[in-house]
């Protein structure tokens, strides 16, 4: 029986199993529902390779620690076998978009790269196929970074930090401790931080390697937007004029674009080419996506906003009369930040999903009425009715919650919203 245990049978676990077979090694699977494959157990000789979805207090984790097993995360185990340069991006929000932007620019610049990590292709599935001349663009979540001891990418980026996944980490401090593993072990290379997030800037003081910053407005950063130009200042200032396409982005996606441009600049892509290539990048679905306009009312699908920070960021992009749709599954977040900062242009708030009553109670504490609906379709219809009397109204679904109460993920929830909008439009 093998001493290598793969904890988790999902995509990452399967990737680890394939990787080990290529290395000529055997392993057994374990998960908390089924247990081991065959007659096995955790011992002090066990090497436990951990899938990112396994909670720190899971039953098997307690048993493995008690047995004295050596527990290593998928990220750390795979990183040691990666021959290419690694770019690791983390943050509460923006990870996926920044990674997509970076890989888009690199591919158009004919730089060999692979986009791996959180939500996509596991690092374990392809790491042994990576050549020394390739760039691995890695989206790293707090789950993957948790308990990492030696991970040290060539470039790390930290986009922002806010309350999220408290149901997994048990506390915000634990969540932050996981996130800083994206850069805390770097002694060489570059660590990039969002200069517009004061908490991220404070955490950057822990960095031991070369620090760089990006900002949507602050000229003290190494990459910033001056209102009409992208400016990069790394050992000399360069700027590109007439970059008006960036002005069409939501503020947080402008920030994401600047982070991506700073990364590609460090990887040898000239600023003018980075700007040229990112100009035809299109955001993935369900991220501030306009899905229809009906009688002057714009419907926006921001189903990817699965935490409060993302919804607050989305709201900053609108001045016109707005109906906000919230709600979904509970990750242990508090919704006070939304209601404490709700602008006068928000005329109506609806909530559906398992957190709807919790959201309504929070709104009541701030004197804001929240309409609760059993179904997202009803919430969409009533939100439209609430703002159609105004000029240039907006119905924004930006949930501030995960989607797993009623949907398989944020994409299915976004698709459901789009179908509800189509019904209103008579399609």
Secondary-structure blueprint:
Elements: E1 4-7, H1 11-22, E2 28-31, E3 35-36, E4 47-50, H2 59-67, E5 70-73, H3 74-79, E6 85-90, H4 95-108, E7 113-117, H5 123-126, E8 135-139, H6 142-145, E9 155-158, H7 166-169, H8 172-179, E10 190-194, H9 198-203, E11 210-215, E12 223-225, E13 230-233, E14 237-240, H10 251-266, H11 271-278, E15 289-294, E16 297-301, H12 308-315, E17 322-326, H13 336-340, E18 346-352, H14 356-365, E19 371-373, H15 376-387, E20 394-397, H16 410-425
Parallel strand pairs: 1-2, 1-4, 4-5, 6-8, 6-9, 7-8, 9-10, 10-11, 11-12, 16-20, 17-18, 17-20, 18-19
Antiparallel strand pairs: 2-3, 12-13, 13-14, 15-16
Helix pairs in contact: 4-10, 4-11, 10-11, 15-16
User: What is the overall shape?
Assistant: globular
What structural class do you assign from the helix and strand content? alpha/beta
Low-confidence stretches: none
Within the largest sheet, what's the order of strands?
Answer: 7-8-6-9-10-11-12-13-14
Residue share in β-strands: 15-25%
Rg estimate, integer Å = 23 Å
What does this structure look like?
The protein is α/β, with parallel strands linked by helices and about 425 residues long. The protein is built from 16 helices and 20 strands. About 35% of the residues lie in helices and about 20% in strands. A hairpin with a 4-residue loop joins strand 12 and strand 13. The mean pLDDT is about 95. The protein starts with a strand and ends with a helix. The strands form three sheets. Strands 7-8-6-9-10-11-12-13-14 form a nine-stranded mixed β-sheet. It is globular, with a radius of gyration of 23 Å.
């Amino acid at each position: 029986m093998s001493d290598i245990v793969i904890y988790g049978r999902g995509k990452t676990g399967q990737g680890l199993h394939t990787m080990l077979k290529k290395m000529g090694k055997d392993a057994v699977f374990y998960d908390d529902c089924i247990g081991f494959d065959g007659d096995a157990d955790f011992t002090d000789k066990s090497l436990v390779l951990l899938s990112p979805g396994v909670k720190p207090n899971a039953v098997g984790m307690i048993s493995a620690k008690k047995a004295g097993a050596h527990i290593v995360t998928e990220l750390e185990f795979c990183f040691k076998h990666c021959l290419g340069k690694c770019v690791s991006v983390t943050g509460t929000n923006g990870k996926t978009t920044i990674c997509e932007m970076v890989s888009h620019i690199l591919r158009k610049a004919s730089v060999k790269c692979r986009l791996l990590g959180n939500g996509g292709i596991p690092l374990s599935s392809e790491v042994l196929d990576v050549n020394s001349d390739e760039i691995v663009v890695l989206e790293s979540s707090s789950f993957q970074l948790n308990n990492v001891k030696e991970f040290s990418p060539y470039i790390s980026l930290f986009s922002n930090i806010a309350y999220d996944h408290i149901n997994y980490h048990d506390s915000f401090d634990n969540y932050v401790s996981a996130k800083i593993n994206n850069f805390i072990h770097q002694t060489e290379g570059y660590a990039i931080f969002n200069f517009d997030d004061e908490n991220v800037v404070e955490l950057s003081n822990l960095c031991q390697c070369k620090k760089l910053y990006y900002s949507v407005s602050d000229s003290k950063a190494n990459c910033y937007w001056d209102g009409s130009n992208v400016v990069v200042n790394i050992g000399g200032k360069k700027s590109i004029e007439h970059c008006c396409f960036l002005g069409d982005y939501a503020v947080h996606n402008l920030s994401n674009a600047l982070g991506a441009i700073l990364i590609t600049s460090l990887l040898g892509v000239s600023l003018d080419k980075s700007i040229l290539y990112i100009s035809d990048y299109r955001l993935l679905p369900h991220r501030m996506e306009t899905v229809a306009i009906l009688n002057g009312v714009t419907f926006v699908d921001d189903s990817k906003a699965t935490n409060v920070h993302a919804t607050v960021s989305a709201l900053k992009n609108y001045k016109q009369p707005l109906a906000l749709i919230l709600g979904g599954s509970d990750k242990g977040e508090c919704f006070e930040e939304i209601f404490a900062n709700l602008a006068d242009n928000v005329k109506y708030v609806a909530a559906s999903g398992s957190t709807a009553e919790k959201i309504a109670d929070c709104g009541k504490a701030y004197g804001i009425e929240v309409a609760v609906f059993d179904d997202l379709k009803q919430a969409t219809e009533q939100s439209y009715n609430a703002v159609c009397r105004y000029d240039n109204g907006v119905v924004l679904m930006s949930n501030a919650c995960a989607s797993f109460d009623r949907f398989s993920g944020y994409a299915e929830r976004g698709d459901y919203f789009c179908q509800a909008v189509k019904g209103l439009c008579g399609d």
